Each structure stands twice: as C-alpha cells, then as structure tokens.
Fold:
Amino acid sequence: MSATSAASADAPPAAARPARRRGVELSLIVAAVLISVYGYAEVGLAKDGAVPPGAAGYGAGLGVLALLAHGAVRARAPYADPLLLPIAVLLNGFGLVLIYRLDLEPSLGGRAAPAQLIWSTLGVALFIAVVLVLRDHRGPARYAYISVTGALLLMVLPIFFPAINGAKIWVRVAGFSFQPGEFAKVLLAVFFAAYLSANRAALAYAGRRVWRLQLPTGRVLGPVVAIWLISVGVLVVERDLGTSLLFFGLFVIMLYVATGRTGWIAVGLLLAGVGAVAVGLLEPHVHSRVQDWLHPFATIDAGLGPNQIAQSLFAFADGGVLGTGLGQGQSALIGFAAKSDFILATAGEELGLVGLTALFLLYALLVARGFRSGLALRDPFGRLLAVGLASILALQVFVIAGGVMDLIPMTGMAMPFLAQGGSSVVTNWIIVALLIRVSDSARRPAPEVSAGPQEPLTPLERTR
Amino acid sequence: MIRCVRHAAAFCFLLLVALLVNAGRVQVVQAGSYNGNPANRRIAIARYDQPRGDILVGGARVTGSRDGGGRLRYLRTYANGPLYAPVTGFASQLYGTTLLEGTEDDVLSGQAEELASVPLWNEITRARQRGGDVHTTISAAAQQAAYRGLAGRRGAVAAVDPATGRILALVSSPSYDPALLSGTGTDTTGAWRELNADTAQPMLDRAIRQTYPPGSTFKVVTAAAALQSGEVTDLRAPTRSPDPYRLPGTTVSIGNEAGGCANASVYDAFRVSCNTVFAKLGADVGLAGMTAQAQAFGFNDTRLRIPPAVAKSNFDTAMSPDQVALSSIGQFDTTATPLQMAMVAAAVGNGGTLMTPYLVDSVTNHSGATVAGTQPRTLHRAVSGETAQKLQQLMEAVVSEGTGTNAAIPGVVVGGKTGTAQHGVDNTGTPYAWFISYAKPPGGSSASVAVAVVVEDAEADRADISGGGNAAPIARSVMQAVLAGG
Structure:
C-alpha cells in the first residue's frame, strides 16, 4: 500500500541529466538485424545446404527499414526508451524468418514472406509517420469519440463481407484482405484512455458496498458497459473470440488502473463468467474449442488422427529443451494456419524451450517498458494509454500462446510481429510508435512546469 | 493510480509465468509421451527421412532406397522382391514393417544405440545416425533353387545349416514384390488392397508363419521317441503291428497305402511309410514320451525368434491314446511350419543336436564396422548320438530304396522322409506334399544342409500329390545348390 516508496523508486535522480541512449538503440538494432539475417541463412543451410540467395537483400531491406525508423526516433523522440525499437525489429525480422521457413513447405500453400515484407515496410512507414507527425502523446486524447466511432465502424465492417474459415473478421478489397479488428484495438485503447482519464473522479466514486467490494455507481457504469457490450457483441457475431477476450481484458485492466476500484474487477469477472458460460453453451464453434482444450487428443482416440491442437503440442514436444534447429522441424504437419495462428509452434519446435523462453522474455521486456513509461508519466491519459498498449501486447501474447499450447481454449489471434498477417504487423508497429512517443515524454527531462492541469491527483499519489 | 499500474504489471507478469510453466510442461515434462504418441507422424517422418540401411544376402544388397521427394521421403526398393520377400518383409510408409524390415528396424532406420560411435553425441546434436546394414545367413543359390523349384505353385521351402542353425533359404510361393507397398500414393493403397484380397495370400510367409499337418514326415519324431524310450532297440526286428490297426479304445481302424506293413520292422515301415506301425509305436510310447520328444525337436515353442517370430508348431499335450496314435503319424492336431520340419531333419543330420535357427549373421554400421553378430547356439539336445545314427539309417534308406529316391544326389549321402498330409473336413481338402531331408558333403560325417519342402498344389491331381513326386526334387536342387556353394 505504500505508493510513496513505489513512486520514489521510480523517480529518476533529480540532478542527473537523463541519457538519451540512442547509441544503445542503434547497436541493438544492428544486432537484431544480424540475428534475423543469421536465422534466414540458417533456414537455407538446413533445407538446401546453401545460404539462400535472397539473404543479402533480406538483410539490407530489414536494415534500411530499421535505420529509417531509428532516424525518425533520433530526430523526433530522442528520449524514447532505447529497447522498444530493437525488440520490434528483432521480432518482426524473426517473424519473417519463420514465415520464409514455412514457405519452403509445399504442403502449406503459396509463399507468404514477400507479402509479409511489404506489410512490414508499410508498418515501419506508419511507425515513422506516427513518430514524426504526433508531437505530443496527449494529442490523440482530443479524438476520443472519433476513435470509438472509428473502432466500432471497423468492427462492424466485416459483417458485410463473406466469412473466411468460419470467422467474419476480414475485409477484402481489390485482392487485399485485412482485419479491421486489429486496428480497432488501438483506437479502443485510445478511447478508453481518454474517456477514463476524463471521468476518473466520477468512476472512482464508490457506489453500494457489497461484502468487501466497492461497486461503482450505475450512472457511470452505463456508458462504459454499453461500449463494451457493443464491441463484444459484434465480435461474438463475427466469431472472433480471441479479439473479444482481448478487448474485455483490456477494458477491465484500464478501468481498474483508472479507478483503483476492485469492484470493477469483480464486475468484470462476473460479466466475463456469464459471457463465457453463455457463449460456451450456445455457440457450437466455441463449444468445440473448449472441448479441444479439455481433450486435445480426443480425435486421436476416436481414430480420426490428431487435430491442430494435438499437432501443435507434438511440435512443441519435439522441440524439447534445445529445439531441432531452424528448418529441421515438422511443424508443417499442423497444416492450416501454421504460418499465422500456430506460428509459435514452429518457433517452439525449432528453437526449443530455450528459444521460446527468449521470445516470451522479449515480449515481456516490451510490455515492461510500456508499463515503465506509464509509471514515469505524470498525466493520466498518457499513463492509461501506455498501460493499455502494453496490456494489449501482453494479453495478445497470452491468449494465442496459451491457446496453441493448450493452456486455454484456442482462439484465433496473431502472435504480435511473428505471425503472418498484414493488419496485425501494421497495427503492432503503430502500437510501438505510440509507446515510443509515450516513453519519450516519460523520459524527457521535465521543464519548469511539472504537473499539467489535467493531472487531478488522488491523495495517495505524490507529486514529483 | 501508480499502485494500480503496478498491479496490472504484476498481472501481466503472472501471465508470463503461466506461459513459461506451461511451456515447461509441454516441452519437457510431457514431451516424452507426446513424442511417443502413435498419432505423431514425426516418428514415421524420422524413420524415412534418410536412406534406410540395407539387407544383404551373401554380401550383395537385396534392398535399396530411392528419394521419393514426399514428406515420408525415402522409398524402399528391392533388387529381387518376390524372391526375398519371405526374408525381408516390407517397409511401407503406410503399412509399417514386417519380418526383417520390422525386427531389424532400429538398425535399418539408424535408431539403434549400438550404431552410434560416440554415445550421447547424437542426442545433443540431434544428428541422425545413418542406418546400419543387416547381413543375412541366406544362401542366394539355395534361395533361388527353392524359388525356381516351387515355380509359382503354393508352397514353401526352409533350409538350414544343421551344424550352426544358419537359415540358408526361406521361400514362400506365390510371392509378391514388397516394393509395391513403398510410398503413400494410391498405387500403394491399391496394391495393398489387391494383395490382401488375393486368395493365394502372396504376403503370407508360409515358411515360418503357416503351419501344416506334417503327415508322414512326423514319423521321424515318432521313431526318435521310440528309440529314445527303448520301445524299439533293433531297427530290423519285426514289430507286432496288425494291418489294419484299430486305434486304442475305439472301433476305428486305419490302414496303409503301401503293402507289407503287418509286423514290419521299423526299418521297412519307415522306408515305405507304414501308418499302422508308427501309429501303434506312438501309442505304445505314450503321450508323455511323444510330447517330450516333439518338444525336444522344437514343437510347442511360442518363443522362437529368428528374429522374426516363428509360428508355433503344435503337438497336443492332452490326448486320449487313439489321438496320440493319430498324432504320431502327423495327423489329428499335429501341425508344423516348414522351418520346424527342417529343424527336425537338421537335428538328425547333426548327430542329435538341434541348433537355434537364425537369419541375421551380423549387423554393420554405416561405415562398415561390425557392431553385432550372432553366435551359433544349441537349442535342444533332441536325441542322443546313438539314436541320431539310427534315425540317419532310416532316413538314408528312404532316399536309397524307399519313397524318396527322387532326392538322391550321386556321390552324396542324403537322408529324407516323404509325407502326404490329408486335411480339411473328412480329409476332403487337397493333400499337402512334404519332403524333409539332409545331405552330407562327400567325406563328411554330419550334414551340411537340411531342407523342408511343402507343396500345396490345388491344381494337381490327387494322385500326383506325394512328397516323393512333387517335393523331393525341389529339396534335391536346394541341397545341391548348398553343396556346390560350400
């Protein structure tokens, strides 16, 4: 309960001139590019016994993209956290390696790596645009209601397009298909951050007290729940359960961080429980996912061969501790969605528990840096935005990694940066750009005026 | 608010811990059971992702591998598939492995630990050990002679080296090309369906997996039991045997196809194959003596592996005296594999010692170093040396002046026994023709080859089916092939 000591541990030493650490960022980016190129070459060596001819071009392309991004950060966000960009480059580069590796399996259909490289380029371009154009991280707060309208529109849009593989989450225009829900989550995070920071006081006002829980009042509960119900309702109609789970978790975390009320968590868990049971019972698609989670080998026992979850588990198990080595696993047995939803199984099989742990730690570092920026910031909007973006990444990694490893029911979702999918890569680059902007504000040496007017402090918090 | 941010961060950290713990569960704790799950195709993929080791006959490879390019990559090829199918079996992507391909799979696929030059090294590097080669005891000449002799008729031949137990020939006819089953395509599934539907059962390894009533060839065992028990001491002394002979405790009588069987000596009765004399001898020896003698020759053994499992040859252990009498002439429930009857001839030819039959001479690793070998081992002392001498006199008389003259080889001492086994309901089935024999090389005191031949020819005339007519010439050519070769 000692917010005082927690805050002081986080505050930088008052007198020291904060380091920009752009040199660190540059050398880490170089390392990330080299690791990716090495992975690319290793795939070729394992599969064909020769370094693939495109290795130099791939390395040069990734390097140029990373250096351009680095230049933008150096120019416009010089105090940004030096770990964010290198981690994003490494994850994206390694994702390209995994997709290229799976492209070599004829059973998995056509090549996907070139398209993914184009999408990555677009993602980096948007990253640069956000870093250059968005001068103040509080800028998006002004567009809260435009954001939420846009988010809802994006989520409703796929209903008018045909379902692909049982999920109505795609929009297909002129041969390009993308998932609007991916973009919607950033917009929703912006809206939640803006709305919650503006209405914190009212939301934190305690309503009825039930047992040991402080429930919020109905007056403020209404609009928030309405937004949430609409978004989740749309997603259930579209059968995209991973994203609805993500939105729900994001919503509860941000609400809790904004108000500090455990009652919100209770309400959230209650709603989640009711929703989960209802959907699990009524919706056959979800019901089968739950059955697969509880009994991943049921299809084997029934003589129908292993299902995707079982194949995924086999892939992870084959990797063991050290992995088979890039290009030497058999994760292509997973078949459909091996490059997207199940891409982590390839990483787990070919890099083993060691490589998988390294990947998880990279994500954890990204998330931790997001939280750290949130803690260092003084305005509630920036703080909530940082927490929200970091939580999106954390929840997304958990939902999909837990799904493919049979920890929770499988729900289709892209592993950030790794998985095939243009919308996902582009969105993740925007998330990282926003985190760069937020961290730049957090680490920038404070001008004379310390706390902005939009900083209504609770008595528990201390000004710096 | 800071406190809540920290709580949220702590929650995310818990998610990370959950993922890592779960990863440890999947990749370490349960990895073994997942990797061993029969539905996990990685087992098959690993088996076929490199050229398989080969099976060799007389130093020549009778198998090979070709790159099929599929996920189960290397396909098995066979140099002379139908000839060696009863030895090699098949190695199929879809239908698994049989016979030597099955029992030696660890060696051929490179999974056997003894192939590794440095222990544990492959576990760490995950490099796959190249497959080792399996050198068989088969003699190419004997195998070909037997296969040619059967000429597509249904039947089987087994030949062994009596002194060591080395199996020199295992032929089953009609045969099939195991290469048809390599692969995963519709050709493969079609071939499998066709082979299984074929009423001639080409995939049945008749030499070791099919049992037949041994008929009169079983009289060798009965004679051995009578000599060992002291029931008979002088081969030339007349026995007290009526013709026809009424089975003890019944009103059923049996007769003979040959004449002169009443009170015939064992020598003459064996030479012309008198049922009455040997049925009575068996009944006189009794159930215990007959069972003991049959088992000393290898009957009722369910554990014989060469290393492919050999079907159990049967001699009932609980019977009434009349059933013992019938069993003693190779009828009733008595059945034997061709290999079993070759073992009977081998034990007699080897002076009474029955060697354990074996098919794998040695195993070499990919670089040619021998990593395992088989040493000859005694299976049983079937009969005493003295009894073996007398049995040899009986069997050699069959070839020199009895029913088996078709097996005679000039300048070589050959002993044999014919058999014609009735089967089916009320013996309406086509009889099987048997011939078992051994041959001593010129100047040798013990046999260097023993053979058993069965011909089950449904097409032939009933009268034509006889051990001496159909089976003995095949046995002779196999023996000649072995004698010429070594």
